[in-house]
């Protein structure tokens, strides 16, 4: 049984680590979002479009800072230079920020509660972030090919 668990861990280590880091990133970003909602907007559960944008930017900024360093170290175990990697990471996160803003605007405009809309948006954003990180930011195959051609 222990051997099977070890084999599953080895096979799915990156995905498991990503889900753990993604969960922690979500906690950090949501904490920032709801703290900002409390401090700036009197803890509204039905924010205006402007308030949605402000909360999404705060949510995103806190999440990106936390996610970059934790994904780099624990998920993708990257040793690539941060100056080449970080801009791609930020660009990929900008695209999912736009996704988050669109989803939040649409869902709250049709009367979905902020908590439910945030949960739905988070699931979509986590999936998008993994795909971008795996294929675009921390692509080990590209790094390996670049090292081989030196």
Layout: helices, strands, pairs:
Layout: H1 2-41, H2 49-75, H3 82-109, H4 114-137, H5 140-148
Helix pairs in contact: 1-2, 2-3, 3-4
How would you explain this protein's 3D organization?
This protein is mostly helical and 150 residues long. It has helices at residues 2-41, 49-75, 82-109, 114-137, 140-148. The longest helix is centred in the first third of the chain and has 40 residues, at 2-41. The chain starts with a helix and ends with a helix.
Total beta-strand segments: 0
- The quaternary organization reads as single chain
What is the residue-averaged pLDDT?
89
Radius of gyration: 18 Å
The outline comes out as globular
Strand content: under 5%
Supply the helix-strand structural class: mainly alpha
Poorly predicted residue ranges: 142-150
Sheet bearing the most strands, described? none
Helix content: over 70%
Question: Which keywords apply here?
Answer:
mainly alpha; 85% helix; 150 residues; disordered C terminus; 5 helices
Quick summary of this structure?
85% of the residues lie in helices and 0% in strands. The protein has helices spanning 2-41, 49-75, 82-109, 114-137, 140-148.
């Amino acid at each position: 049984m222990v051997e099977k668990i070890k084999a599953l861990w080895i096979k799915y280590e990156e995905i498991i680590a990503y889900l753990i880091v993604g969960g922690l990133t979500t906690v950090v970003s949501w904490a920032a979002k709801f703290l900002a909602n409390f401090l700036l907007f009197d803890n509204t559960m039905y924010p205006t479009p402007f308030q949605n944008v402000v909360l999404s930017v705060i949510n995103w900024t806190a999440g990106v800072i936390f996610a970059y360093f934790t994904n780099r170290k624990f998920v993708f175990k990257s040793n690539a230079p941060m100056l080449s990697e970080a801009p791609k990471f930020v660009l990929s996160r900008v695209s999912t920020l736009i996704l988050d803003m669109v989803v939040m605007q649409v869902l709250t405009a049709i009367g979905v509660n902020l908590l439910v809309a945030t949960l739905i948006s988070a699931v979509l954003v986590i999936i998008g972030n993994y795909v971008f990180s795996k294929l675009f930011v921390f692509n080990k195959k590209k790094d390996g090919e670049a090292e081989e051609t030196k």
